[in-house]
Write a structure and sequence with these properties.
Length: 130
């Protein structure tokens, strides 16, 4: 009879240890997960346009990006621009230069440089392209 008690005790001890280890691990895990304070979303700073960029916008891009109903994301409509600028500078610039759906190649500004397209897009979207 006594032969059986020893192994039984050692089994129950190891179970207790295991439970203690699990509890310990669980406790420390919860501590590590303590919720960080949610970072406040900074308000989008308006991107100012230089007179030259304003002129490009006024004479070309505004024909669609300043006219509701054209299907173009409207200037300063940050919600409309958010998913577009999120694609990244390279893709957005490629869409401007090559055209994209209703967007004509180079936005019909044949004399515009890549930097101009980036600056006008930042002006319209209010987001610095990255
Ligand atoms: C003839 C109308 C028209 C003109 C002019 C025009 N656009 Fe657009 N543009 C559009 C339309 C329509 C879309 C939306 C295309 C779509 O997603 O269906 C668009 C989309 C865009 C986008 C977003 C592309 C993307 O990846 O989602 C950018 C950036 C843009 N235009 C920049 C410009 C700039 C800069 C100019 C001026 C140099 C300009 N556009 C001139 C019609 C125009």
């Amino acid at each position: 009879m006594t032969r059986f008690t020893t192994p039984l005790i050692s089994i129950s001890r190891s179970l207790l240890c295991g439970a203690a280890l699990l509890l310990g691990a669980c406790g420390s895990g919860q501590d590590g997960k303590s919720a960080a304070p949610a970072a406040a979303t900074p308000a989008t700073p308006p991107v100012a346009a230089s007179p030259a960029i304003q002129k490009i916008y006024d004479t070309t891009c505004s024909n669609c990006h300043g006219k509701p109903g054209t299907g173009a994301p409207q200037a300063h409509d940050t919600n409309a621009w958010a998913p577009r600028v999120a694609q990244g500078k390279e893709i957005v610039l490629g869409h401007i230069i090559n055209g994209y759906k209703g967007m004509p190649p180079m936005g019909m500004c044949m004399q515009c440089a890549e930097d101009d397209f980036v600056a006008v897009t930042e002006y319209m979207s209010g987001v610095k392209l990255q």
